């Protein structure tokens, strides 16, 4: 019986990745990451020559082209653990740039459902990133990518009639543990929004020498009570489409 300890940084580096199922040559250096596997189709609809590369667990992966540039979309699932695994394995297969295009809840009263928010950094209230780095370590996106996401979001908002915001967000683990008191605390700190994935994406990207950013659509406002539960949220669906368009155009303008 072997007693050699497994070094996860050294095993499974080549070939199909254990969770995501992709391998080198099947994906782009640029990956757009929604949370929901079903939302990958919204990105695929904007690409040409799309091919579904893999669909394992919460990770659905599609590769195509946008204005001649190869782009991959891969869902992250919900929360930081699955996001961290996705970024790690996609990076092993060749990805270098990650843009989260998910949903988020607003924490400031002037932000409306369907608006877009570009992250300038995340307050790490998750259990995954402390396994990588101590809590004082900042979870921040790539500066150049973030500035381009802001610019494109502002331009597109003026054209299509939605507001684009930028600011710091919180990343939480426990959706139903977000009490009114917790929401009030986050809002009082000036945080723009709260979601469940960006801190892991930002931290893993920094540690692995990758680039990451986030542009999310607002699903509801937790301080004004403008939330949609139990029925279709058409404003959010339109916001998802806007966030994808912003991400794709930002990638194109940066020549990534």
Offer a concise description of the structure.
This protein has helices at residues 40-44, 80-92, 143-160, 180-188, 198-207, 234-254, and strands at 30-33, 48-56, 59-66, 69-74, 97-100, 103-106, 116-125, 164-172, 193-195, 211-221.
- CA-based gyration radius: 18 Å
* Contiguous uncertain segments of 5+ residues: none
Classify the secondary structure makeup into a structural class.
Answer: alpha/beta
3D shape: globular
Average pLDDT, rounded to a whole number, is 96
* Portion in helices: 25-40%
Q: Going across the biggest sheet, name each strand in turn.
A: 6-9-8-7-10
Strands, count: 10
Strand content: 25-35%
Spatial separation of the terminal alpha carbons: 48 Å
One letter per element, helices H and strands E, the order comes to EHEEEHEEEHEHEHEH
Number of helices: 6
Biggest sheet record = 5 strands, mixed, barrel
Note down, in words, how this protein is organized.
With 256 residues, the chain is α/β, with parallel strands linked by helices. 30% of the residues lie in helices and 27% in strands. The protein contains 6 helices and 10 strands; from the N terminus they run E-H-E-E-E-H-E-E-E-H-E-H-E-H-E-H. The protein has helices at 40-44, 80-92, 143-160, 180-188, 198-207, 234-254, and strands at residues 30-33, 48-56, 59-66, 69-74, 97-100, 103-106, 116-125, 164-172, 193-195, 211-221. It has a 5-stranded mixed beta barrel. Strand 8, helix 4 and strand 9 form a beta-alpha-beta unit. Helix 2 runs parallel beside helix 5. The chain starts with 29 loop residues before the first strand and ends with a helix. The relative contact order is 0.19. The model has no long low-confidence stretch (mean pLDDT 96).
